[in-house]
Amino acid sequence: MFSFFKSKKNPADPDETSAKPVVEPESKPEESISFASKLKQGLSRTRQNLGKQLSSLFSGGKIDEELYEELETILLTSDIGVNATHQLLENLRKQVKRDALTDSMQLKQALKKSLIAMLEPLAQPLDTTTHKPFVIMIAGVNGVGKTTSIGKLAKYFQTQGQSVLLAAGDTFRAAAREQLIAWGERNNVTVIAPDSDPGKKSDPAAIIFDAVNSAKARGIDIVLADTAGRLTTQLHLMEEIKKVKRVISKAMPDAPHEVLLVLDANTGQNAITQVKAFNDALNVTGLILTKLDGTAKGGVVAAIAGQYPENPPALRFIGVGEGLDDLRPFDAGEFVEALLD
Ligand SMILES: Nc1nc2c(ncn2[C@@H]2O[C@H](COP(=O)(O)OP(=O)(O)OP(=O)(O)O)[C@@H](O)[C@H]2O)c(=O)[nH]1
Ligand SMILES: [Mg+2]
């Protein structure tokens, strides 16, 4: 059975490290547009596509089997997935019966209600006050938005009054170190990064181990640990990230306190495969869904919910752009409003 519960840690020896703190210049003010309107704008392609089909379907007339069948087709082609589509239809039929709905015009509100009911269990905010430092490990396939999300999270937690330290645990990609340092500079936070000498090989587990110890010494509230992107089929890299997690627990027994899997909304149904593989390897405790701006695949949120009706994963944050303010905790009502108008 699938589980989003936190794992028991296996001990492992921390490696030697060449980690160094990198200190911060000034941060720049960012212009802010309301997140709800960004989300709405971001989901406009999904909304237009889905909305147009739904409004012609819900334009009045009898609620019959033919209508349910058409609705099924529309939902399936919006990346909502088979499981979620069937759950939504079942819920809709119940509402139609219970409330004695007779006209298809009444179905839009009923569908919204079903969708909110389905997505609500995903909205489980992250409580970072249970440990100090609260260690968050970020994982996911290549290019999904891990490092960018760390930058945004650093800003988010700081606005909540928490101090943050970043660990540049992606020692694989040459530019990754600089990318994280740049996010650290924008947020005015310390980054623990490997030696910049390209001749020196550095170990991601060791960097993060050092970062956790450094955060303990400095009394920092939250450690955000970046990791290199990896495909779920690269088994040696999946083993490597398991080791990273084990080594973190050597620096602090309960850590990491949160394992966040980052998913790109554009991947559609493949996101489900990624959730399964990373959860098998790491016991994922939360998800971030990025790039909801400019995607026609916003329905993947429902697909995730539909996949685990008994044990819904925690969708902690959603990302709607590349700016510092473009990440927020997931809110089912806000999301459905943006998706369906
Ligand atoms: N439009 C948009 N772009 C995003 C979002 N999040 C990340 N990106 C972009 O996606 C690209 C990849 O982001 P990264 O943060 O480098 O992704 P990563 O997962 O760290 O990549 P690797 O470390 O190479 O695996 C960058 O160009 C980001 O600006 C988002 O919510 N919306
Ligand atoms: Mg990265």
Query: Treating each run of at least 4 consecutive H or I residues as one helix, how many helices?
Result: 12
Question: The CATH topology of the largest domain, please?
Answer: Rossmann fold
Q: Classify the helix fraction into a percent range.
A: 40-55%
CATH class of the largest domain: Alpha Beta
Strand order of the largest sheet: 1-4-3-5-2-6-7-8-9
Largest sheet, if any? Answer: 9 strands, mixed
Q: Which shape, going by the Cα principal axes?
A: elongated
Q: Supply the helix-strand structural class.
A: alpha/beta
Quote the distance from N terminus to C terminus.
Answer: 36 Å
Bound molecules: guanosine-5'-triphosphate, magnesium ion
Strand content: 5-15%
Tell me, rounded to a whole number, the average pLDDT: 87
Pfam family, one: SRP54_N
Region (Disordered): 1-34
Keywords: Cell membrane, Cytoplasm, GTP-binding, Hydrolase, Membrane, Nucleotide-binding, Receptor
Family: Belongs to the GTP-binding SRP family. FtsY subfamily.
Considering the chains and any ligands shown, give keywords for the structure.
alpha/beta, Rossmann fold, nine-stranded mixed β-sheet, disordered N terminus, binds magnesium ion
